Amino acid sequence: MAVSSMTSASGTSTPPRPGSPDRPHVTELRLSAFAGHRGAVLPLGPLTLLAGPSGSGKTSALRAYDALARLGGGAELGEAFPAPAACVPERARPDAQRRRGFRIGCTADGPEGPVRLDVAVQAEPDLRVVGERLSADGVVLLETALRDPGRRAVQAAWHTAGSAPVTRAPLPDDRLGTALLPLRVAGKTDGQRRVLAAAEQMVVALRSVFACDPRPERMRIPVPMGSGRLLGGCDNLADVLWRTRAECARRHAQLVAAVRAGCAGTVAEVLAEPLGDGTVRAVLDRGDGIRTAHERLGDGELRYLALTLVLLTGPGVLEVDPVGEVPAALQTLTVLADGFDRALDPRQCGELLRLAARMCERGHIRLVGAVSDASWAAGTDGVTVVHLDA
């Protein structure tokens, strides 16, 4: 699928707005050969909508971003790509050794300036990294290549700029080499310190991703009281409401105000009720002695409520993998919202987008949402729209 244009909400061509220079953040996703994409470059602003018809590759783009985030957190390839064959371009032909694969990458900006990461993955016959490149300012800081298919390792070379220009060593072929560099590079020379700084910027930018696609059919069911951390499908929304209502009155008041603006009828409160059997259900208090259980709400209302809760909370509530060794003030949570407008009416779309714009403007949260049509986003400042052609 090809990227046809990128526009702001006003319809004029514009680059993504820069984020805080102290917060590493992903500014570009590259799908060189991935699923239905070939040579696609997707610019990402603080609030980005990927727009296009069914089959244009919106979901696969979010899947690629999520996979890079998992790899940045140290996950194995099998965890990041549970169905690798589906990531291979449909018309890709195997080579003489029956090998097929895919290529993805991204750019992360931050204190070190733009840093590029490109990864080539072999999906068949075995899942493995066959090439990786980390670069900045035209300098290759890390490069790996599969030299011996019989070994479960790639040959890596990273920038040293000391007595030897590069250091060579094998790295595992089932993980991202960039995420392993802090454990392998001593940081004794200026070159090594540059490699470490670039790798750390990329890892911090990629991690703390929350992939979200609320499932109304699961949100209507009472759930056990548990950790109070919201799952990607928002199945346990009632458990999270039970926690957040008690912990942060200010944020909860903002949630109630947002739900009031996007749901039908009077909304005096959003709360969770324990049922006495160890489970809890979510309800809307109508303010007149009537409480509407979420099982009575429509799909649009439930998805709107769930996405509003996601935007108003953070890594401590969402099921994400924050970088524990980096202060929270230097991290950015990125929400990947598939079907951002699914089942929502125009009023709900507008309210949700305005809330997202306010939250993203502060710099501690970014959002990439997939929508079928972004025309309803017209007039909202700070929105980057990337159009994908089927």
Note down, in words, how this protein is organized.
With 390 residues, this protein is of the alpha+beta class. The chain folds into two domains: 17-208, no CATH class; 213-389, 3-Layer(aba) Sandwich (Rossmann fold). It is built from nine helices and 18 strands. It has helices at 58-72, 77-80, 177-184, 190-206, 216-219, 237-247, 249-262, 299-312, 346-361; strands spanning 2-8, 25-34, 37-43, 47-51, 100-109, 115-124, 128-136, 139-145, 153-159, 166-172, 209-212, 223-224, 269-274, 279-285, 291-293, 333-337, 365-371, 384-389. The protein has an eight-stranded antiparallel beta sheet with strand order 3-2-5-6-7-8-9-10, with helices on one face. Strands 1-18-4-17-16-11 form a six-stranded mixed beta sheet, with helices on both faces. Strands 12, 13, 14 and 15 form a four-stranded antiparallel beta sheet that branches. A hairpin with a 4-residue loop joins strand 13 (269-274) and strand 14. It starts with a strand and ends with a strand. The relative contact order is 0.17. Residues 5-20 have low confidence and may be disordered.
